[in-house]
Amino acid sequence: MAPTSSDEQRPDEAVAPYGTGSASTPRTARVRVHHLAQAKERGEHFAMLTAYDQYTARIFDEAGIEMLLIGDSAANNVYGHETSLPVTVDELIPLVRAVATSAPHALIVADFPFGSYEASPAQAIATGVRFLKEGLAHAVKLEGGAYYADTVRAMVQAGIPVMAHIGFTPQSEHALGGYRVQGRGDDAARLIEDAKALESAGAFCVLMEMVPAATAAAVDAALTVPTIGIGAGNATTGQVLVWQDMAGLRGGPGVKVAKFVKQYADLRTALLDAARQYHDEVRTGQFPGPEHSF
User: Does 141 count as an annotated binding residue?
Assistant: First the structure.
């Protein structure tokens, strides 16, 4: 039985839909997929960041970030792998649940890792069900073009909201010949057709990675659903960054930051300085002092 009757208003629909929130108008509603569609209709923009733990999830949610992505990038940024390929569903689900239970307002999107959906629509549905039931996600994301339209359609029919990911798809880096911009020249038409096929299959949003700005703008113009860009110019409805890149946590000697990344802080230096000071004070006996002792 549904928890409310059809003529009752749910708490998360009782305020104006879709809002980033601010000090004067804090966000009180959960962002839903239809709020993102309304944003595109109104010419507004929204932000998405990755998150993998309770603290960043709560902070980003408080900041008004509309969508939190538990990306397969956890392979690189949590588990220490060089690529996103090794991470598994079992490794991601605890991270998804941590984020979902810590962010009361953002739309939570779980990323399908490599090997969790390619075999068949049935495999994709099974993975999606796990992310929604065990991880408490609100939607999932999968990489691939028109070839996966039937997979997206089956998942949507099963009640699983799907975000599509086209352009550079990191799980296919070996097939694509490495990290290369997609959609240049004549290849732009293919991306447009991919996006239209995925939208027709029921994807509520299309993410584009490492795509020329003009191509991304053409894709966005061809769709009624919102688009999200990462290295795809500013014509998309939304933008996404890996939070460790955005906040300057990922860095250091020999680490190259992607062209499309803007660092809004330098957390690596702040943490490094704090750790060094802590180490020095422990070694010299300054910590703990009387004020830290019982």
Answer: yes
Residue 220 among known ligand-binding residues: no
Ligand-binding annotation for 194, yes or no, is no
Contact 231, 259 (CB under 8 A): yes
Question: Which one of 8, 66, 173, 209 is the catalytic residue?
Answer: 209
Q: Are 238 and 45 in contact (CB under 8 A)?
A: yes
The question of whether 91 is a catalytic residue gets the answer: no
Cβ of 5: how many Cβ atoms within 10 Å?
7
Supply the pTM of this predicted model.
Answer: 0.90
143 has binding-site annotation: yes
pLDDT (tens digit, 9 = 90+) per residue, 147-172? 999 999 999 999 999 999 999 998 88
Mean pLDDT, contiguous 10-residue spans, the chain (294 residues): 42 43 59 97 97 98 98 96 95 98 98 98 98 98 97 98 94 76 92 98 98 97 98 97 96 81 96 98 97 96
The token duo for 137 is 């996600």
